[in-house]
Amino acid sequence: AFLQPGKLSFGSGLENQRLTMTCETTGVKAVLCYPYNGQTDVPLAWSQPEKPNPLAIHGLSGKVVGYPIVLAAFGVGRGKIHVNETSLQTDAGEIVTHVVNNPENDEHLDNAMFIIPREPLKANTGYVVKVSFSILGDEVSAEEEKVWRFRTTSK
Predict the structure, then answer these.
(1) Phi and psi dihedrals of 151, rounded to 5?
(2) How far is residue 87's CA from residue 132's CA, in Å, rounded to a whole number?
(3) CA distance 30 to 55
(4) Vertex 101, ends 13 and 120: CA angle to 5°?
(5) Closest CA to 5 of 18, 24, 19
(6) Are 3 and 32 in contact (CB under 8 A)?
(7) pTM above 0.85, yes or no
(8) Which residues contact residue 92 at a Cβ distance below 8 angstroms, ignoring those fewer than 6 apart?
(9) Do residues 66 and 125 touch, judged by C-beta distance below 8 A?
(10) Are 134 and 84 in contact (CB under 8 A)?
């Protein structure tokens, strides 16, 4: 919800160490990525327990993995993302092995997909992400491609 473009309205509540949020859609059409293009100081790893657990479908529950990368499509008439191909590599061209969560393998996703590196990312390193995808909704979009870069923290 926080990646969503436009002015966001939301409500939240906390009880017994459980946080619940409700967000309103803005209707602004956009495909957004996180970490965003040019972002620096991106964390190296992720190991937070989460429900639903995005690592479970890959047999990686409880493992420390690289920081998740997100691509999400927003807007009226937008539907499920169909991922055709993903690529993650360092600026030096070293391929980073990763898993992909998308609406076809993760029942909790609809308009978003995750690239999760199998191992923590390298410190102070530039990365290039490439995703080829289509959006299946009121209209089927032509194949699109997003390419963006980010740099990890030095710690």
Answers:
(1) -130, 135
(2) 9
(3) 27
(4) 90
(5) 24
(6) yes
(7) no
(8) none
(9) no
(10) yes
Contact 98, 85 (CB under 8 A): no
Residue 108, helix vs strand vs coil:
coil
State the number of CA atoms in the 13 A half-sphere of 50 facing the CB.
Answer: 13
Give, as one character, the DSSP assignment of residue 61.
T
Q: Which two tokens stand for residue 101?
A: 């969560």
The predicted structure's pLDDT at residue 106? 95
Tens-place pLDDT, residues 34-69:
999 999 999 999 987 788 899 999 999 999 999 999
Cβ count near 95 (within 10 Å): 9
Sign of the torsion formed by the C-alpha atoms of 134, 136, 137 and 139:
positive
Taking 50 as the pLDDT cut, the residues of the chain under it are 1-2
Q: What is the pLDDT of residue 29?
A: 80
Tokens 């991106």, located at residue:
42
Backbone angles phi, psi at 93, to 5 degrees: 95, 5
- Amino acid of residue 15: E
Q: Which residues contact 153 (CB under 8 A, 6 or more apart)?
A: 40, 41, 42, 43, 44, 123, 124
Tokens found for residue 113: 């997909």
CB-CB contact of 76 with 43 (8 Å): no
